[in-house]
Design a protein that fits this description.
alpha/beta, OB fold (Dihydrolipoamide Acetyltransferase, E2P), 5-stranded parallel sheet, 31% strand, DNA binding, phosphorelay response regulator activity, Two component transcriptional regulator, LytTR family, LytR-like
Length: 236
């Protein structure tokens, strides 16, 4: 069950968003409960009863008394995990909201185009699995979807993300294979597993990832890599 809060002082607009969210969720067979609040004070009262009442909050920036940015600041002191999606007709206010770990912004003038993407991305995020790996610098907590690939180098497993390469204390690559084969990763050669979702293109005996990096593919693994790539492409 996904718990969603909508906070907007425009009742008509809030009801419209609620109906659209219900339509999208029903189409994807996702069970959810949607709660509506006409003021920031009403939304904050929900936090008086529970530590984390919502997985996702759609929050209007321009509201009387407490605006969306003020509400977000109070929420973040109580809850670091809820995904905040700001609704705004004042695009110049967007930059002020970055410090609240904002997940998405939706322009009210583009609601029909941007609402669906924001909801689908947020659902993917909250259902994403967080894994903990031991490194020489302590425990690394990372979402599976943030991992580009695993690589076995000099008897250590490395984790590559878009920004960093981490050296873990894992000594057996089979431990990675056993755990992540069912989580959207595919072996491209002995000692390297790639997140299928980040394969951008396939060459003769290599692949190119979304970050532009090229990796070799074993001749014996190529057919399976191609099948997985086509399957993901069709799904997307």
């Amino acid at each position: 069950m996904v718990y969603i809060g909508i906070c907007d002082d425009d009742r008509y607009f809030m009801d419209y968003i609620g109906r659209e969210l219900e339509r999208i969720l029903k189409k994807k067979n996702i069970d959810a409960k949607i709660y509506k609040f006409e003021s920031g004070m009403d939304l904050l009262e929900a936090y008086d009863n529970e530590d984390k009442p919502f997985d996702i909050i759609f929050l209007d920036i321009g509201m009387p008394r407490l605006d969306g940015l003020e509400v977000a600041e109070i929420i973040r002191k109580k809850d670091e995990e809820t995904l905040l999606i700001f609704l705004t007709s004042m695009e110049e206010e967007v930059y002020k909201a970055f410090k609240y770990n904002t997940f998405r912004f939706i322009r009210k003038t583009h609601i029909n185009k941007e609402l669906k993407e924001a909801l689908e991305s947020s659902i993917e995020k909250i259902t994403d699995e967080k894994c903990i790996f031991k490194t020489l610098n302590g425990d690394l907590s990372i979402y599976t979807s943030d991992i580009l690939y695993f690589e076995f180098i000099d008897r250590n497993v490395y984790i590559k993300t878009f920004d960093t390469k981490y050296k873990t204390t894992i000594r057996r690559f089979k431990d990675i294979e056993d755990k992540f084969t069912s989580k959207g990763f595919i072996l491209i050669y002995r000692g390297c597993m790639v997140n299928i979702n980040y394969i951008k293109s396939i060459g003769n005996l290599d692949i190119t990832l979304d970050n532009g990096e090229k990796l070799p593919v074993s001749r014996y693994r190529m057919e399976e890599v191609k099948k997985s790539f086509i399957k993901v492409a069709r799904r997307g």
